[in-house]
Amino acid sequence: MAFKANNFGLFTTRQKRKSKATMSDNFNLPQDLFAEILVRLPIEDLVKSTAVCKSWNSLIKTPTFISTHLEKTISFAVKTLEERRGSAGPVRAGFANSKTALRREICAKIRRGKECMPAFPKFLIASPSFHGGRGALPSAGGHPADLTFLAGGDSGFPAKNGKFEQLVHSHSIVQGMNLPIYCFGSQSLEEDTSFEGHSCITEEESLLDVVLLSQWEDRMRKGCFRYDVTTSEIKVIPGRMKFISQLNEGETMDHLSKLEGNMLPEQNPSVFDCVKHPEELLFCIASCKKAISELVTLASLPANAILVIINVNPVEYGHVFLVPRTSNTHHQFLDARSVEIVTRVAAEINNCSFRVFYNCSKPHSSDVYFQACYFPDPLPVEFRPVDIFFSGGRRAIRICSIIDYPIKTISFHTTCDLKIMAMAISEICSHLDEKNIQYNLMISDSGKTIFLFLQRSHAASHALSTWECGGYFLFRYRYEFDQVTEDVLLKRLRSFSLDEDDFEAVKQLCCSVASKFDI
Amino acid sequence: MDSKLGLIQQSVNTRYSQWVRDALDELPDNFTITDPSISGHPIVFASRGFLKMSGYSQEEVIGQNGKIFQGPKTNRRTVMEIREAIREERGIQVNLLNYRKDGTPFWMLFHLSPIFGKEDGRVTHFVAVQVPISRKQRRNGGVSLSEDGSGLNEIVFGSCRKEVCSDSLLELGRVLSLDSGSKVLDIEETCEAGDFEKRRAASAYNTILSVLTHYSELTGRLVCGKRCSVPAAGYISSSLNISLGRIKQSFVLIDPHLPDMPIVYASDAFLKLTGYDRHDVLGCNFGVLDGVDTDPSTLHEIKESIQTEQACTVRILSYRKDKSSFWNCLHLSPVRNASGKITSVQIAYYVGVQIEEECKNQDRHGLSPEMRQLSAVGAVKVAVRSLSMGASLAGSSKS
């Protein structure tokens, strides 16, 4: 508790701001002392402080400062969160997410302070000074095509936004790293070709599948994860739903050791810290102008890329965060581009075990991110009978409601036009956001099927994770794992489900949005 | 590709002798036979009726996966149900929309059944019988149907769900409906097979099974339609076979629970690398690759890592079947399964992934051999963790 007061409760922000203006001119405090003070400011004030004077501005924007501040804020917030939650509910696997959400919120807030910031040189990220000279830019054997997305990608960054984020990433990731980047071939990005045709015929592992599995296995060997998820037991719970449960003791053991060793969570942040844990970034996914997808090494991050970052508390093998770095201003909504690109990732991986998740239920979340992992078996929801209530003509999009499932669920299917499906889904989701309906998305079947789980608008902290919606439950303790019955889980899912009337409304919404796109 | 076609030839010939093809070709039904133990779960036999129905030639179909007949309107869920049935090694009967070579869709009753080896209880093949479902003809403007045919269809079928008593009349109607050329079918609507289709599929399956059983007597490797014996330890189920078949790296699985820790699975790439046939290495100890100049201390290292259940990477001199040697960058890793019965999680297999050192350059996609090796370990870990591995055997022992 005392720690808390030191961190933030020292002054009210108003007092601080007043004092600041004079401080910078009149006091000859050493730079590091300033940093020490500023690092304690809440993020909003920090953003404003960049406008105070040049020295503060540059100080606040140094990567070390940013990371120190992030660490402080997160450790503090996590601590409060843990105190508040205690040992909440039986299922704790979603815990990492709340930390992630926090971090994203913070990053976004820095970004939102854009108005106060002076304009940065436009292509800072590609300028030599930021990654150790031009020579380091294209890797040996790099192609001219690589440079196209360095220079702003296809759409380019809106000048007023995204700069700070760019800065954060360019500083921290670039440091001496050769970043593996998976480039989507244009062939795979074209509509109506690979998605429908040969991609389903080739039974071989795809390149992206190989890249993801190898990078994940590599991190596993290096001990980047808190536990080996393959040692946790899974079983089918008897009953007609065939729910799957996993005993994830790794989480428990970690929890205990943390208490015993008096290690604070900030020493083991479960989210990507680009400075401290560069190894948690597996690779990036970006689109390129070439026909065939390939893996290249670049010294800096292309715009509009997806960062693939490990989740150190994996729910299943291959658990990663997929963080789209788009320049979109509507961070709170799922934009069509993000949905499309992750669906393409699923299609390109072309492995029926691979699933992508999206939880909308992040409190005041600001940044869109997805999670993904390999489930060796299909999830129970995928087996439920369906009722087709919309079937598009030319686009061949089908929308079904899942019958006889405890949580209200809609599934979207397409085999040819993934872009339209992504656009439709993101529009549906933005309507759901407006109506304060909580939802989760799950992309399965190599991008051909997307499930939309509808939850009632609870307090944001209590919401089901997407895998729970799909029928995959995690337990921390053996007695819970042994004793759980289908009834308990059915009840749990039902208690979160949207009610019948709202569900009908959502179905109508889906139909109207889909028919708008289905020309 | 030649080696794969060879495997496909063998798949039929060694089990049922080469004469079985003629016998199967005599049958009027539409069906395919697939082999789950070959990577990609390819079609190893397609009947004449099937080829006629689908519009493909024999060469185009053999070696392909059944997926090639699916298209945009094929119900993904049904496809998944079939996939699950295959993984669990059980039969299934579903209505499925498939596509002909010219792209026209058609509904059919898809009846899939596994064929088991009598003595070892392994799934040797799957038989897929496909009965086209005729359906209500819609008299859309501009479609010229023979007046008689369409009239009969209207009367007899009513709807495709309607049960019909006279098989012969139905058969007549079917012939007419199939002959009536270009039809505009409302393909959206799910079409359900009636009793007639179901009976026809079941009888076709029985005929095929009896042919296969009969011809398997010629080779002495008997098959049957039901699992007669529980597979011996070290059995790799179809589901695992199919999952592992996707992995294009050279690797083997070793079962540490069996005496002498034999190889229970060897990938195609492994066989290509070492020159062995699959039946040469299955059941052998991993030491099959060792030779005179193999360093005993490296072997000791491998043994130790197995005892301590640790992964290890070594560089070891290995020998092919023709006694030529190569430097082998071997990675050995424990792989755990998901079976919930045992208190401590059991290690199911060891995966050994080989890379020949001479060909250690990057491939055209920018992947290093190390990455390929790691990805193989990852893919095996996911595959072995599947719950359906145990499910098929548990199911069969119950029934």
From TrEMBL, chain A:
Highest taxon listed in the record's lineage: Eukaryota
A GO biological process held by the record: glucose metabolic process
PROSITE patterns: FBOX
Pfam families linked: F-box, GDPGP1_C, GDPGP1_N
Keywords (A to Z) from UniProt: Cytoplasm, Guanine-nucleotide releasing factor, Hydrolase, Nucleotide-binding, Nucleotidyltransferase, Transferase
Record flagged with keyword Endoplasmic reticulum: no
F-box domain residues: 23-73
Recorded GO MF terms: GDP-D-glucose phosphorylase activity; guanyl-nucleotide exchange factor activity; hydrolase activity; nucleotide binding
Cellular localization per UniProt: Cytoplasm
Cellular component GO terms held in the UniProt record: cytoplasm
Cited Gene3D superfamilies: 1.20.1280.50
SMART domains cross-referenced by the UniProt entry: FBOX (SM00256)
Keyword Metal-binding: no
Family: Belongs to the GDPGP1 family.
Protein name as it appears in the record: F-box domain-containing protein
Automatic annotation (TrEMBL), chain B:
Span of domain PAC: 90-145
Native species: Corchorus olitorius
Protein name as it appears in the record: PAS domain-containing protein
Xref: InterPro entries: PAC, PAS, PAS-assoc_C, PAS-like_dom_sf
Keywords, alphabetical: Chromophore, Flavoprotein, FMN, Photoreceptor protein, Receptor, Sensory transduction
Single GO molecular function: photoreceptor activity
Cellular component annotations (GO), alphabetically ordered: nucleus
Record GO biological process: response to blue light
PAS domain: residues covered: 16-89, 263-283
PANTHER family documented for this protein: PROTEIN TWIN LOV 1
CDD domains: PAS (cd00130)
